[in-house]
Amino acid sequence: MKLSKEKQIRSAVANEEQNIGGVLYHVPGTDTIDLQDQMLIRDRDVKRLYNVFNQIQLGNKPKKWMNDEKLSPEENERRAQQKNIKMKNYKWRKACSEYVKASQKTINYVLFSFCMEANKKIRNMRENEDILKEMQDATELPKFSGGKLEDFVAYTLRKSLVVSKYGNQEFDSIAAMVVFLECIGKSNISDHEKEVVYKLLDLIRKDFSKLDPSVKDSQGANIVRSVRNQNMIVQPQGDRFSFPQVSDEEKKTVTNKNVEKDGLNEFMLNYANLDEEKRAEVLRKLRRILDVYFSAPNHYEKDMDITLSDNVNKEKFNVWKKHECGKKETGLFVDIPDVLVEAEAESIKLDAVVEKRERKR
């Protein structure tokens, strides 16, 4: 699961008040996003949609095979059997889908409760004892019409809940879920059934809270720790930045791609160790190079060097202003020059468009 690349969120290594580590941000250098809060939002949204059974996609209902006179009797028989198998599978999926819809509301009411926090509806899992009481008070679930209840559970149970071991002990979660379903609406639940149900509830609780960053060793806590200690080319070392100490130079072969990577790595290291003013200047120059690349001037000739001034006017060339305007107005991050639009529309090379315009002058 990724927290970056969502709603234009990006990840990076930053130095914040002597605390160097991985962060999430929207715009470089202007804001950072609290990792714990971001993970709590994701946890809340996932919990709101959590169900122990998967929703079944029925698909189109297969039609009965009609004999084709152009085919042999054997081929017609074979295709008729295929259609019968598809029809049986469809009826099975339909029975499972109907049972999920019929039982889901009761199961969710037994397992979960809602509360309001900061004007937001939060879904929580009840305590085991409360769940057991709700099971006894609930209405008995309808009978599964598609066959054995064990087969239904095996087919629809959430994949993360299908286990054969829990902790260091053997535990058949499918059989335990069958016990759980059969105990809903049952006033007399035996001690053995309670033991099985409690183990299953612990498994569901762990899966339900797996993205909660406040739960130790949960997936959510590991994601937050992973972002803070993310494995990037430039790593924090005290109050400076450097490359990782592990090297594979002996295994590396000399290729153009590796030479390019070395150049990029060197730039990233140098950039990471610049002060804020120097970084802003480098960003402006990089943006100017991109504009030249996408918007080559009319007088540009092939292989001609593009020189950049060492003193860039910061007021006239704000590195993020054009970027933000493009998003708000047109959704474009750079202005696309007319020559590129014309070349794309006519499926011709850029040089041909420039030459054509020169001849018209």
Question: Short summary of the structure?
Answer:
By secondary structure, this protein is mainly alpha-helical.
Task: Give short descriptive properties of this protein.
361 residues, mainly alpha, two-stranded antiparallel sheet
Overview of the structural elements:
By secondary structure, the chain is mostly helical. It is 48% helix and 10% strand. The protein contains twelve helices and eight strands. The strands form four sheets. Strands 1-2 form a two-stranded antiparallel sheet. Helix 1 runs antiparallel to helix 7. The two termini are 56 Å apart. The relative contact order is 0.09.
Query: Which structural class fits the helix and strand makeup?
Result: mainly alpha
User: Count the helices. How many?
Assistant: 12
Low-confidence parts: none
Helix content: 40-55%
Rounded to the nearest angstrom, the distance between the terminal CA atoms is 56 Å
**Main sheet: strands, sense, barrel:** 2 strands, antiparallel
**Secondary-structure element series:** EEHHEEHHEEHHHEEHHHHH
Instruction: Estimate the strand proportion.
Output: 5-15%
Counting DSSP E segments of at least 2 residues, the number of strands comes to: 8
Order of strands across the widest beta sheet? 1-2
Calculate Rg over CA atoms. Answer: 31 Å
Could you say which overall geometry the principal axes of the C-alpha atoms support? flat
Mean pLDDT: 78
Secondary-structure map:
Elements: E1 10-16, E2 19-25, H1 35-48, H2 73-111, E3 112-117, E4 120-125, H3 128-137, H4 149-156, E5 165-166, E6 169-170, H5 173-183, H6 191-208, H7 219-228, E7 235-237, E8 240-242, H8 256-272, H9 276-294, H10 321-329, H11 338-346, H12 350-360
Antiparallel strand pairs: 1-2, 3-4, 5-6, 7-8
Helix pairs in contact: 1-7, 4-5, 5-6, 11-12
